Amino acid sequence: MQSIEYTKSEGWVEVRVPTYKRNVLLLSCLSSIINQTWQQWRAIVFDDASDNETREVVDEIGDWRICYRANAVRLGAAGNLNQCFQTKGYYAGSLFACCLEDDNWMYPHAIETNIQTLISCGGSIMMRNQDIFKRSDDDIAPTKQTTLGPWFAKSAFYGPVELAARSMFYTGI
What is the pTM of this model? Predict the structure, then answer.
C-alpha cells in the first residue's frame, strides 16, 4: 500500500472519495477519475466500513495515484463526507481539492475545466451542479435534471456573501 504523503506541487488535484460498502459504484467513481483529461490527480478513498472489500477494489485497480484510508472508527455518512472537506491532517496537500462521493462520477473534462475556471476567475472555491442519471440493472440514462435545480445559474460567479447565502438558503449548508 502506497503512502498518501507527497510534496505539494502546482497542478495536482486531490479527489477525496467517501465510501461505505458500495464497491460497484465506487469502481465507476474511481474509473471516472482515472479517465480524466487532467492526469495530475491523487485520489484518497475514505472507507467507513470495517471490512477489506473496499481495499480490495482499490488494490485491484492498481493505480498508484489512488490511496486507501480506512476510518479508525465508523463515522457515519455525514462524518465521512465531512472529513473530505477538511484542510488539515493526513491529506496529501494538493493545491486543488474536491470531493466526489462514491455513487457519483465525473465527466472526463471535469477536473481540467474546474482548474481553468478557478484560475481564470481568481476563485478559491467552486460549487458545481450535478446532472442526475437514472440507473437500472443494465442502463444509465440522463434525466435532464440536476441536484440543485434552478438554484444556481449555469456558469454564474458569486461573491463570498452571495455564495454563502445561496448555500444556506438553498442547500442548508
Answer: 0.78
